[in-house]
Sequence to fold (301 residues):
Amino acid sequence: MLIDRAEITIRGGHGGHGMPNKFKGPDGGNGGDGGSVFVKTSSNLNLLNQFSEKDVFIAENGSMGGKNNRSGKQGKDIEILLPAGTSVIEKDTGEVILELTKPDERILICRGGRGGFGGTTGTPGTRGEEKKVILSLKLIADFGLIGLPNAGKSSLLNELTNAKAETANYPFTTLEPNLGVLEGKCIADIPGLIEGASGGKGLGIGFLKHIEKVSMLLHCISCESPDVIRDYKTVRGELEKFGFDLTKKPEIIILTKTDLVSSEDVQKLVKKLSKIVKKVLAVSIHDYSSLEDLKLVLRNF
Ligand SMILES: Nc1nc2c(ncn2[C@@H]2O[C@H](COP(=O)(O)OP(=O)(O)O)[C@@H](O)[C@H]2O)c(=O)[nH]1
Ligand SMILES: [Mg+2]
Fold:
């Protein structure tokens, strides 16, 4: 299940104390700075799931200064991986402190404390910065994959994006929503819409926001189907029942698994389907160029 909200505590390491001078001895060294906490963005959308196991992140403290002017060791920095699309909100004030948009950014979030000065008395290091934050993943799917069970939706999502959705050649693999990102656009595999609706199982309300805003439906129909038009109508019927005006959204048909039938049959099926929906793309996950053609259509939408 995709977790889209988490609360965590983060703190930089404290600065090490400065070493006081020993009686008539050599000077005491400065304390080392505490390590800082950085967030690093990734295109993996499932990263908020990690916080159900661990929710406190503290960088290493700096060490105390040593004798003979030796400075204390600096504390190590730490990095927290977060999905791009996450807002980091200060818990107490509700203020948005970071909006993580692009993958592979590294941003300082809590600075480590400064090491204290060594010398006559030796000053203490300062405390590492601490924040309690809410992480909120705002993901609005741009494209929604729909179609009957087994049409090849999850396989396509995996081919087009970094997602690792479960696939199987029997219906009802999973009712959990799967999301992936293709060139900054989010694609949602919406299995539960049809598979769940017909089995009377509801989708979590948290997922609804991902589908209602979808700007185009990618309607998958398998070449193996004995009646592609009937499949199409079945799914449109379910969409209608589901509401959210989903039937009014732009739609293209993706004729899937073209490797399983002859190219003449593919042509016939494309022709048939073109009578009901303007744009029909024939695709196989085993045909690289067909996937590239599909990406081009999505890129230009
Ligand atoms: N030969 C072939 N098999 C495919 C293709 N796409 C999906 N499949 C297989 O069809 C089955 C159902 O695919 P899946 O993606 O789970 O369908 P979903 O239920 O719509 O999500 C799996 O066994 C896939 O490996 C394809 O392009 N060619
Ligand atoms: Mg599936």
Q: What stands out?
A: The pocket of magnesium ion (ligand 2) is lined by residues 153-154, 173, 191 (CB under 6 Å).
